[in-house]
């Protein structure tokens, strides 16, 4: 029988607080009143349906779109989705979205004057295999300004969304790149407890790097427990 927790419980020392003063819009992104738990109905316990054929190999390659190849440095992002005991989570939908090499999203709300890439949509998805593995081919995203504070720039990052066995089992996080110079002033990164921040940073993977083609980065995602990856309260475009 499918077990659905009524809500995702905050994990002390792992997830960011719901209200973080330095990240100004958190004040608008969490409930002001106690939550009211609703009964789980058919929609919550029978979806999403992600059968064979719905997610294709092409969905995991973000570098090819609209009849051409994206501009920028090709990278391979791969890893495993694990539970708190280190066991693989198979058949889990992993979605990603990101800015292009110039730091711009293909989104009507993104107005900063970096060029759009006609061959980069910035979205992808894949199902984990029986060992919990996933793999994307994409472009290393650029940094971009975002107006949270004076001279604010987001570190290069890729957004991750994970679906479990039902719509109520969705978790969202961000993957950063090692040694990014913008960590010091990024309140989204710094909102996570200090001991947990490293779990949002990928590692360079020479073994996954393909000669004359793409650099490799590994990003394992742990869903719960002491080594859990920090997750966000809501998905958004920052």
TrEMBL record:
Residues 77-105 form the Intradiol ring-cleavage dioxygenases domain. It holds the Pfam family Dioxygenase_C. It is an enzyme of class 1 (oxidoreductase). Belongs to the intradiol ring-cleavage dioxygenase family. Gene3D superfamilies: Aromatic compound dioxygenase. The gene is pcaH. GO terms for molecular function: protocatechuate 3,4-dioxygenase activity. It comes from Rhodococcoides yunnanense. This is Protocatechuate 3,4-dioxygenase subunit beta. Its EC number is 1.13.11.3. Keywords: Dioxygenase, Oxidoreductase. PANTHER family: DIOXYGENASE, PUTATIVE (AFU_ORTHOLOGUE AFUA_2G02910)-RELATED, INTRADIOL RING-CLEAVAGE DIOXYGENASES DOMAIN-CONTAINING PROTEIN. The keyword Electron transport does not apply. InterPro entries: Intradiol_dOase_C, Intradiol_dOase_core, Intradiol_RC_Dioxygenase, PCDO_beta_N, Protocat_dOase_b.
